[in-house]
Amino acid sequence: MKNSLEINVAIKNFIRREISDFESMEYAPTRKDSEKKCDLSLNINPYGVSKKVLSKLKYLDKTKISHYYPENTDLINEIASYIGVLPEQVMLGDGCDGCLEMITHTFIDRGDEAIIPIPTFHRYEFHTVLMGGKPVFVPMKNFELNSSDILNHTNNKSKIIFLSNPNNPTGIPIERNIKEEIINGFNGIVVVDEALADGTNLNGASLLNKYDNLIIVRSFSKTFGLASLRIGYIVSNPKIINQIKKTSSPFKVNGIAQELAIEALRDKQHIINSINYINENREFLISNLEKIKLKCTKSITTNFLVDVSNFYKNPEDLIGKLKEKNVLVTDAKSFRTQKNNYIRVAVATEEENEKFIEILSKLLGV
User: Fold this and answer.
1) Distances (CA, A) of 142 to 170, 204, 224
2) Which of 94, 158, 361, 363 is geometrically suited to a Cys-Cys bond with 98, CB 3.0 to 4.6 A?
3) Torsion, CA 149, CA 309, CA 301, CA 91, rounded to 10
4) Domain 30-48+269-364 has what CATH class?
5) Contacts 24+ apart (CB under 8 A), 54-59
6) How far is CA 167 from CA 118, 361, 364, in A?
7) Residue 356: CB partners within 8 Å, gap ≥ 6?
8) What's the CA gap between 280 and 197, in Å, rounded?
9) 285-288 own/partner pairs: CB under 8 Å, 24+ apart
10) Domain range 51-266, its CATH number among 3.30.70.100, 3.40.640.10, 3.40.50.2000, 3.10.20.70
11) pLDDT tens, residue by residue, 260-313
């Protein structure tokens, strides 16, 4: 009989090399609510969930649970109307991350390159590497995208360019002409992640009729407040959608999530209230952080970077001190910032935001 060491060695011999290079990590560590004073790391809708969504949850038909549940045509139609496309241009996925997974499964082969402007969301890199692809990082200057810099890094191995709009972690939007220059100048697929766009006036759907190499990814986790339901969607031309569907389970998104997403889209007032709440609290945070001599990126959404180098040479020291006070923010290193000067702050509830400013001011002695 093999001992545990021999078994572990045998397993390692069968694991794909891309997997063996990854470290196991928990994205949302478990913690007791009683120990948490304020959490500005989550990057979700602090305003909460629509009452219409909660009401719908009470009266769901039992078949939504007991039956297999393919894509809901009512939801597809609602999304198409909301974003301004045809239903055949929409495909559901299990959150933005699930959509990114299907996209890389469709287009990235071993040795292919994905162009990734940094700092940005680390899952573009993860899904590229998982498929045996090579991420090519293009540092942004002053957090602004430059189309020439991006296109100069492309070659015949480049399959995808990933753009986050507005960007996670900076919250800065991409100018439309810059985005078009990249889409028009690239022979591969341009994936625009608009997970944070619902609370803004950004919407790239109008470009889908102009360019056949554009894919847009969106989420119900942010403005709609449905993060734990894991539902998002892909918008592109029907030919691309049909290819991506080949990599997807026909039952990828659960029926409850789809039913509740319909209600979230229909509750227009809750969407407006959420956007106003996020914008007001973001401006509160940024204005108060700037008063204590902390530079913030010019965000239009829920998250932004804060330069803490005036007070701390290593942001991890500040993050640790905040955590001791039960205050959570995000270390920006995972986004591949060029300098280790930053923390990422995401808008929380009004009470949490005020507490954060109070505790941070005391820590900095200002």
Assistant:
1) 10, 23, 30
2) 94
3) 50
4) alpha beta
5) 55/263, 56/259, 56/260, 56/263, 57/256, 57/260
6) 10, 27, 28
7) 38, 40, 285, 327, 329, 345, 348
8) 16
9) 285/345, 285/347, 285/353, 285/356, 285/357, 288/357
10) 3.40.640.10
11) 999 999 999 999 999 999 999 999 999 999 999 999 999 999 999 999 999 999
Does this model's pTM top 0.85? yes
| One-letter amino acid of 272 | I
- Provide the 8-state DSSP code for 135: E
Residue 170 · residue 143 · CB < 8 Å = yes
Which residues lie below 8 Å from residue 100, measured CB to CB, with a gap of 6+? 123, 124, 127, 191, 193, 217
Q: How far is CA 100 from CA 12, 88, 265, in A?
A: 27, 19, 22
**Domain assignments of the chain as residue spans, ordered by start:** 30-48+269-364, 51-266
| Chain segment 165-190, per-residue pLDDT in tens | 999 999 999 999 999 999 999 999 99
Q: What spatial distance separates the first Cα and last Cα of the chain, rounded to whole Å?
A: 65
Beginning with the edge strand found earlier in the chain, give each strand of the sheet holding 330-331 in spatial order. 295-296, 303-307, 342-346, 330-331
Cα separation, 227 vs 305, whole angstroms: 22
Nearest partner of 91 among 216, 197, 192, judged by Cα = 216
- Interior angle at CA 262, CA 173 and CA 346, nearest 5: 35
Considering just the CA atoms, what is the radius of gyration of the chain in Å?
Answer: 21
103, 130 Cβ separation under 8 angstroms:
no
